[in-house]
């Protein structure tokens, strides 16, 4: 059965080319198939939509504290 996962590489990792390469290599070594990739700058509204499914959970509260 095929399953799909969303992964986001955060700016701190992308800022260091070696770390980005290590992440991509790990993805490929583990035989995961990348079906799409793009680089975006996540603004507050986009982040709100992305994390909407976590609203009301401890994780969501932590995000709100960190990104105020």
From TrEMBL:
Keywords, alphabetical: ATP-binding, Kinase, Magnesium, Metal-binding, Nucleotide-binding, Transferase
Top-level lineage group: Eukaryota
Cofactor: Mg(2+)
Nucleoside diphosphate kinase-like domain residues: 5-61
MF annotations from Gene Ontology: ATP binding; metal ion binding; nucleoside diphosphate kinase activity
Family affiliation: Belongs to the NDK family.
Protein name per the record: NDK domain-containing protein
């Amino acid at each position: 059965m095929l399953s799909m996962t969303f992964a986001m590489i955060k700016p701190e990792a992308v800022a260091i080319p070696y770390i980005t390469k290590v992440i991509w290599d790990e993805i490929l070594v583990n035989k995961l198939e990348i079906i799409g990739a793009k680089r975006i700058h996540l603004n507050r509204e986009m982040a709100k939509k992305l994390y909407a499914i976590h609203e009301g959970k401890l994780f969501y509260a932590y995000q709100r504290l960190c990104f105020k």
